[in-house]
Amino acid sequence: MNQLNDVQRISMGGKKTIHVRVNGKIIEKEVPIRMLLVDFLREELGLTGTHVGCSVEGRCGACTIALNGENVKSCLQLAVQADGTNIMTVEGLGTVESLHPIQEGFWEKHGLQCGFCTPGMMISAYNLLKVNPHPSTDEIREALVGNLCRCTGYEHIIEAVKYAADTLASMSKEERDKLLTY
Ligand code: FES
Ligand code: FES
């Protein structure tokens, strides 16, 4: 008998087992075919740091995660589409005891206001600093273009990213690589 393809499965509303690496942990889980990736992260894995800000229309960037090194709006993907990928959410950045330089930057430079956009901003900053360790103000603005802040405190957020860039630049290559790999 022919195997169902994903389109046929979606139309039938079935389930599928996916394998993903999330914040360094290998996960195997059966998910409803129609489940959004953001719902998988929040509801199935309890990673509620990834926010939903615009009723899943892809406009706000609050749900941004790093997927195979790219910024991805997790409200625009199905969980099954993430099968076999490597994901980092804001929970993978650092801990309360040991903040990542990006988190430290948001704290030190008051980049956190209501905090709703912050996880997505941090992930976009992370993906920027991975490829561009010394970004200019314009490059930071460009990297954050998909992340909206309803508190409109963009200046503090840009300062936070600069702080993170400077902190990372002051570290050894080994330390830096460790902090920018997931
Ligand atoms: S919740 Fe995904 S872009 Fe707004
Ligand atoms: S800090 Fe409030 S939405 Fe950005």
User: Quick one: how many beta strands?
Assistant: 5
Structural class: alpha+beta
Average pLDDT figure: 93
Q: Would you identify the CATH architecture of the largest domain?
A: Roll
In CATH, the topology of the largest domain is named Ubiquitin-like (UB roll)
N-to-C order of helices and strands: HEEHEEEHHHHH
Task: Just give the CATH class of the largest domain.
Answer: Alpha Beta
The CATH superfamily of the largest domain is known as: Beta-grasp domain
List the ligand species. FE2/S2 (inorganic) cluster
Short description:
This protein is α+β, with helices and mostly antiparallel strands and 182 residues long. The chain is built from seven helices and five strands, in the order αββαβββααααα.
Molecular structure report:
- With 182 residues, the protein is α+β, with helices and mostly antiparallel strands.
- The protein has 2 domains: 6-92, Ubiquitin-like (UB roll) (Roll); 101-179, [2Fe-2S]-binding domain (DNA polymerase, domain 1, Orthogonal Bundle), CATH 1.10.150.120.
- The protein has helices spanning 6-12, 37-44, 101-108, 118-131, 137-143, 154-169, 173-179, and strands spanning 15-22, 25-32, 64-67, 70-73, 86-88.
- Strands 2-1-5-3-4 form a 5-stranded mixed β-sheet, with helices on one face.
- A hairpin with a 2-residue loop joins β1 and β2 (25-32).
- It is globular.
- The relative contact order is 0.14.
- Bound molecules: FE2/S2 (inorganic) cluster (2 copies).
- One FE2/S2 (inorganic) cluster (FES) is lined by residues 113-118, 149-151, 153.
